[in-house]
Amino acid sequence: MAVYGYVRVSTMEQANQGQSLETQRAKVALQARMMDASIDRVFSDRGVSGSRPLEERPAGKALLEAVRAGDSVIATKLDRMFRSAGDALSTLQAFKANGVKLYLLDLGGDDCTSNGISGLVFTIMSAVAQFERERTAERIADVKASQKAKGRFLGGQRAPFGYRVGADGGLIENLDEQETAYRMQQLRSQGVSLRGIAALLEKETGQAIHPQSVKRILNSSYIYSKTSSRPIE
Asked: Is 10 a catalytic residue?
């Protein structure tokens, strides 16, 4: 009979820092000692979103393939292993059917597969976790829609070509880049190829530009205009 731990962090930044993973490992090891056992192996998903089902995560899949009848699995929190009620309940049923015990520390550390109260709490909390994830996604979508309607920049490595980000998060025209983008649109409307546009702009400005960059700018959701102070989407 083996005792396995499962730990997860959702971003590579957290994984590289290691603090959260190490904290989870320490808690899992402590729970095993309280059970007069030791951890045979800890399965770690580094930088893996909890929205992915357990069987679709690298370490999660390996864990499910490793467990056998009589084994135990320990995790610090329900949301480290599951964020979908369906995923949580189907895994719990599979563990029960195969004689695998599941201990989740945030649910009291009891065996969820054999303790009736723990199983009930597990079911309720699985549904709550999924509801919270869906509500969070809705709130983020609402905020992004509101920010977009106000002309705010929604993030990324850099502002779109032709703009810079103002102090309030709004997009402000970069006039030089606006002229370049507007010129690209003019040339493209006249049937000039991407390579031809790049060559003409290099001749006119003295600055080299790659045809793929021309394509990216032309395919942007932002339409550049000499008269408009905001992008037309």
From this structure: yes
